[in-house]
Amino acid sequence: MLRTSPYLFLIVLHMKIIGVSMKLLISYQKDILKFIVSSVLSVVQGCTEGWMEFMGSCYIHFDERETWTSAEQHCQELNSHLVSISSQQEQEFVKTHDYQWIGLNDKDVQNQFRWTDGSPLVRTPSSEILSKLNNYFSTGEDCVVMIWHEDGQWNDVPCNYHLPFTCKSGSGKKR
């Protein structure tokens, strides 16, 4: 049985005294219950609706295809960044059934890869290929993509490709 606040009892009593109809009263109780449930879920999950919680961070995936710069800007508008990967578990969580942008790039200094959120570059099996990133076109491959059909391997590609992307935020930022 759901325990309610003593304040709810007082509100109900007050509404009965002033003559609020039972239908309105029931509707009001439903609204209060929805608010309580959504508040509890927000605290428990730590992420806003639509975002998924994993290991203390919040994630949201977008299927819309954008350039790397536009995707990062979209994430920043949501107080987040393109996803950074700090463990193999996180890599598995983020990996989807499509290519996608991640927040790794060497736009400032060639071959010095950095995450857009400033987090340290932690070695994972996928990040080990950083030393092998091929710059196939010789120059202009400054942004990193996760390739789902190669078990989430990373590769550098031109930043003007249009790809899906995932944003990542710390859990406290999305409430």
Label the overall shape: elongated
Integer-rounded radius of gyration: 23 Å
- Name the helicity range: 25-40%
Task: Enter the CATH topology name of the largest domain.
Answer: Mannose-Binding Protein A, Chain A
The helix/strand series, from N terminus to C terminus, equals HHEEHEHEEEEE
* Count of discrete domains: 2
First-residue to last-residue Cα separation: 28 Å
Count every beta strand, where a strand is a DSSP E run of 2 or more residues.
8
Low-pLDDT residue intervals, each spanning 5 or more residues: 37-43
Strand order of the largest sheet: 1-2-8-3
Helices, by number, come to 4
Query: What is the residue-mean pLDDT, rounded to a whole number?
Result: 79
Query: In the CATH hierarchy, what is the architecture of the largest domain at level 2?
Result: Roll
SS class: alpha+beta
CATH class of the largest domain: Alpha Beta
Give the biggest beta sheet. 4 strands, antiparallel
Work out the strand percent: 15-25%
Determine the oligomeric state from the structure: single chain
List keywords for this structure.
alpha+beta, Mannose-Binding Protein A, Chain A, 4-stranded antiparallel sheet, about 30% helix, elongated
Describe this protein's structure:
The chain is of the alpha+beta class. The chain has two domains: 6-45; 52-173, Mannose-Binding Protein A, subunit A (Mannose-Binding Protein A, Chain A). The protein is built from four helices and eight strands; from the N terminus they run H-H-E-E-H-E-H-E-E-E-E-E. Strands 1-2-8-3 form a four-stranded antiparallel β-sheet. It has a four-stranded antiparallel β-sheet with strand order 5-4-6-7, with helices on one face. A hairpin with a 5-residue loop joins strand 6 and strand 7 (153-157).
